[in-house]
Amino acid sequence: MDIHQLRIFASVYKNKSFSRASEELYLTQPTVSDHIKALEEEFGCRLFDRLGRSILHTKEAEALYGHALEIIEKADKVKDIIGRFKKEPSGELVLGASTIPGTYLLPPVMAAFRNRYPSISFQIIIGDSREIVDKVLAHDLLLGIVGSKPSNEQIVHIPLAEDELIVVAAPSFSASGSISVKELSAQPFVLREEGSGTRTEIEKIFLEHGVSIDSIKVTGLFGSTDAIKQAVKAGLGVSILSRLSVRDELKHKVLKEIRVSGLQMKRNFYIVTHKKRSLPISYTLFVQYITTAENT
User: Fold this and answer.
1) What are the sequence ranges of the domains in the chain?
2) Contact indicator for 159, 270 with CB cutoff of 8 Å
3) CA-CA distance, 169 to 177, in Å (whole number)?
4) Is 28 in contact with 94 (CB distance < 8 Å)?
5) What are the angstrom distances between the C-alpha of 228 and each of 100, 127, 143, 162, 244?
């Protein structure tokens, strides 16, 4: 048994598939199968039951998985320590991020971070806040950045940056001055899907003002902020979006901000990690960097 075999086993277990593990690890499927077979021979037990095109992990595999993750994590930490001696941290940061921080907040921060640590590269996985938190819980990600505070006790959350949500409409929207919350709730709305951090915050804000999300006339649900912006531009309805995400549209007057009297919509972005996982040095450096005020 070696660390390479354990990485292959962990990928097969996580993906529930030899083929998906081979794609993730850039190995051929026969190579993956051979390494799993070698592990099974070494341990004297089956780790996966092959059921046609699908597989199920055995009780032995379930017991091995947690220990395998721990060994892999310790091996990676040793590499990081050696990297410190070289005075040049290296490796790939695999981060999960919800749409707004992943699209509008992280890219310039990542570029500046790489100027300081050029041997560290990034992979960003974009999903809604719920998806990213679920991946951290499942140990598929070590670090995520989301737009709503997670409630799971296994998740550690650190406030990162403040965001402002604003009401936007097409330039032809006829309101002059500000409108009331009641008038806003009567407008046709374009919203993100459930699970989005922005959607969660919108629901909280409306409930605080005595408005149920079910009473709002929703003309469209979209899976991305860009799709919502296009729908609002086309006059499908108004929406509530992060100011970060519409800065260019407001600047070029292709979207219009609608002021709502008595309504201030603030929220935080959060760094999320699993409380039982320790971060390698490259991740620790990144967290230290982005939580320094002038870097976000």
Assistant:
1) 3-84, 87-160+269-295, 163-266
2) yes
3) 14
4) no
5) 13, 16, 27, 22, 14
SS3 (DSSP) at 192: strand
pTM of structure: 0.63
Tens digits of residue pLDDT in 8-26: 999 999 999 999 889 888 8
Q: What's the token pair of residue 108?
A: 């310039």
Q: CATH for 3-84?
A: 1.10.10.10
CATH number, span 87-160+269-295: 3.40.190.10
3-84 matches 163-266 in fold: no
DSSP 293: G
User: Which of 211, 212, 205, 242 shows the shortest CA–CA distance to 226?
Assistant: 242
SS3 233: helix
- What pLDDT sits at residue 293? 54
d(CA 119, CA 116): 9
CATH number of 163-266: 3.40.190.10
User: Tell me, what amino acid is at 279?
Assistant: L
Average model confidence (pLDDT) across the chain: 87
Q: What is the pLDDT of residue 250?
A: 93
